[in-house]
Amino acid sequence: MTTQTLDLAAVERWLKAHLPGFDGPLEAEKFAVGQSNPTFRLTTPTKNYVLRRKPPGVLLKSAHAVDREFRVQKALADTDVPVAKMHVLCEDDSVIGSAFYVMDEVHGRHFNLPDLPELARDDRRPIQEEMSRVLAAIHGVDLQATGLDDYGPAGNYYRRQIDRWTKQYRAAETEARPDMDALIAWLDANIPPDDGMRTLVHGDYRIDNMLFDQSRPRIAAVLDWELSTTGHPYADVAAVIMQWSMPQGPDGRGLAGVDRRAAGLMEDEEFLADYCARAGLPGIEGFGFYLAFTFFRMAGIIQGVYKRALDGNASNPERGRQMGALVPRFAAAGLEAAKTV
């Protein structure tokens, strides 16, 4: 069963029975971006929606949890965190072959690269400041008031994340990668003591997982909550810096080598200071560990994408195969970050 198309007749029948106000005829277009859960624009004569589905086929345990994506975004509807409006969740695999949910389509600007080449120089920093503001808002969500207190296990977030992603990586491993083995061993031996900080975390917080208002530097919706859980906020902060440290361009999608001051962009230290001020923190000690962790986790994610591409059930198989070449780069960058601790 392909991830590139939908059984429109089945989707239309199900939505007519479960989504108030829905009426066909229905058309669908797959979004080109995204490697994890295939995403489609649903067009009807009166309203557009977005459908996000779990890929069909054999998947890694706990991966592609569209039910969790649906739950967390629905819970955030009345908070300071901008998300799309959730409508319905279908957990019956027999409808289209895998679980899916339907949400509102959010109209906004999408930026794929953190150097923001499509914007004028003076319009770039406000976008980054907005990223900092919303990240602090995510970490400031009241878990009990939103019903998310049980959204993730208690205990040391990094211990369970390293264990989880090591297992995921091993399950998707296609060849020996000594740097990845070394990074896993270093992280395993250097986990900081649990400091008691427990917040909502997005898990993949980067500019291409956001939609911005059409006319101002305001996030209209944070997207792709598949890796969200309750845990330690510094992983999200490090994810931003991790992306910025990668090579510039469509492959690395980073800011390495960019004269940020000339380009009107924040330095890493400025973003960290801005976030800490918004979150009420004095600073982040031992940041190199958190940065190394995010490189490790991203390498694990990419390895899973690569394995799905080889198996034929990736959302974008060609891109998935290309991304496999990035795993050694992320592993090596993680080891470099470890040296800064």
From TrEMBL:
Molecular-function GO term, any one: transferase activity
Aminoglycoside phosphotransferase domain boundaries: 28-254
Gene3D superfamilies linked: 3.90.1200.10, Phosphorylase Kinase, domain 1
InterPro entries given in the database record: ACAD10-like (IPR052898), ACAD10_11_N (IPR041726), Aminoglycoside_PTrfase (IPR002575), Kinase-like_dom_sf (IPR011009)
This protein's UniProt keywords: Transferase
PANTHER family, per database record: HAD FAMILY PHOSPHATASE (PTHR47829:SF1), HYDROLASE, PUTATIVE (AFU_ORTHOLOGUE AFUA_1G12880)-RELATED (PTHR47829)
Record protein name field: Phosphotransferase enzyme family protein
